[in-house]
Design goal:
- The protein is of the alpha+beta class.
- It is built from 14 helices and 18 strands.
- Strands 1, 2, 3, 4, 5, 6, 7, 10, 11 and 12 form a 10-stranded antiparallel sheet that branches. A 4-stranded parallel sheet has the order 16-15-17-18. The chain has a two-stranded antiparallel sheet with strand order 8-9.
- α1 runs antiparallel to α8 and α10 crosses α14.
- The longest helix has 19 residues.
- It is globular.
- The N and C termini lie far apart (66 Å).
């Protein structure tokens, strides 16, 4: 009940096209979006009410906004995109893992590997999103936590606040970090819907073809999406009020810019020379190289459980690629990694006085969430200064496309 006096001192007006003003414009546009009831994923916004359904997934249209000064104008760029929301929950994923792993140790390890770093969506609280940091098997919905009103179980909390009944009270809890408060929070797997595509979905040609009908639009169609989106914002009563309050006008007609097409030039591979925009360029570069690096020392790190996969799929195809490019590498140093901290194991295995010229790491995990990917890249790029290539186990399991991946290595 204390009273405070706040004194504001006039300094200077903020110029409309200054760097300081950009922060205000971004705040203004985010305020408009708050009236539109979109769901936010990172810097992007998606409309859950305008989605399309394919089999067991929803495709939400959305965009990532950027405001910048260009050609002496304040311009808004909308990078259109699509978010995949699966009907599968984190609970369904855990049940599938449980059916495939009999021992409790394997279940815990596989669950952490599969769900850590995944983004999930909860529909009971207006489509909020969270990034999972770990699966906590020490807690269940029957566990208690402290609130201002006293101690309460997660089961009772969800029942009282959201009118949600948790049927399986023995499921583990998911740990995430609140984006605003930075505090650790617990989530119920059964209430968390998975986002993004699985490896099985991406390997299904017919499914991906159907999905691309909605996600890969032509330029003209994307332009219509932009115009429709801005028209919807300008028609919203809450947005109209904000625009009047801020005194900033928003124009829904796109700005036309004059572009310049650059000559791509030619590429030279061994004795052949061809235009860099040729349709079959991927095939044309699969020949003897114009110049070849001298490699004497390189290393492959991989999970111990994947040894046969690495030897049969990766190494064999790597030799085929070497023959194609007429390049000879010595045999790599093969270092298996045990389950646990890969970074410390690699640091112990590498001799600082005799660093490999480059390394390949074959990681477990899903696309975009390879086990310890960020930590390993920091180790190789920043600490050791070694070129490195990370490849997912799932990629080398599939015969289709593996040659293209190894060509790039």
């Amino acid at each position: 009940n204390e009273k405070y006096t706040i004194k504001l001192t006039w300094i200077t007006p903020v110029e409309s096209k200054s760097v300081e003003a950009m922060a205000m414009y971004n705040r203004f546009f985010k305020t408009l979006l708050s009236h539109m009831k979109y769901t936010r994923f990172g810097r992007s916004y998606f409309d859950p009410h305008a989605g399309n359904r394919i089999k067991n997934i929803e495709l939400w249209p959305g965009f990532e906004p950027t405001i910048k000064i260009c050609n002496s104008q304040i311009l808004l760029n909308l990078n259109m995109g699509t978010k995949v929301i699966r009907s599968e929950t984190a609970y369904d994923v855990l049940l599938k893992i449980k059916s495939q792993n009999k021992s409790n140790e394997d279940l815990v390890s596989k669950a952490q590997l599969t769900l850590t770093h995944c983004t999930v969506l909860t529909k009971y609280n207006n489509h909020k999103t969270y990034t999972i940091s770990c699966v906590d098997f020490s807690l269940t919905p029957q566990s208690k936590f402290d609130t201002k009103m006293g101690s309460i179980t997660y089961y009772d909390y969800y029942k009282q606040k959201y009118n949600v009944i948790i049927e399986d009270v023995k499921q583990p809890l998911l740990t995430a970090t609140d984006k605003n408060t930075k505090k650790s929070i617990k989530l119920i797997p059964k209430l968390c819907f998975m986002t993004g595509l699985t490896d099985e979905m991406m390997a299904d040609f017919q499914f991906m073809k159907e999905m691309h009908r909605y996600t890969l639009g032509k330029a003209q169609a994307k332009m219509k999406e932009n115009i429709s989106l801005l028209s919807g914002i300008l028609a919203n009563e809450g947005c109209k009020s904000e625009i009047k309050k801020w005194g900033i006008n928003l124009v829904d007609k796109p700005v036309t810019l004059t572009g310049k097409q650059l000559d791509p030039g030619n590429m030279r591979v061994f004795r052949d020379e061809f235009c860099a925009t040729d349709q079959d360029i991927d095939r044309k570069v699969q020949t003897q190289m114009y110049s070849k690096p001298t490699i004497q020392n390189w290393t492959i790190f991989y999970a111990k459980s994947s040894e046969s996969l690495v030897m049969n799929n990766f190494i064999n195809i790597f030799h085929q690629c070497m023959n194609t490019f007429k390049i000879q590498f010595p045999k790599p140093r093969m270092i298996p990694l045990q389950r646990g901290d890969y970074v410390s194991q690699i640091q112990m295995a590498i001799n600082p006085n005799n660093l490999p010229q480059f390394v390949v790491c074959i990681l477990q995990g899903q696309k975009g969430k390879g086990f310890q990917y960020n930590e390993l890249k920091t180790l190789f790029n920043h600490t050791l200064g070694i070129p490195s290539q990370m490849i997912l186990e799932g990629t080398i399991k599939r015969d289709k496309g593996i040659r293209s991946v190894i060509n790039k290595v």
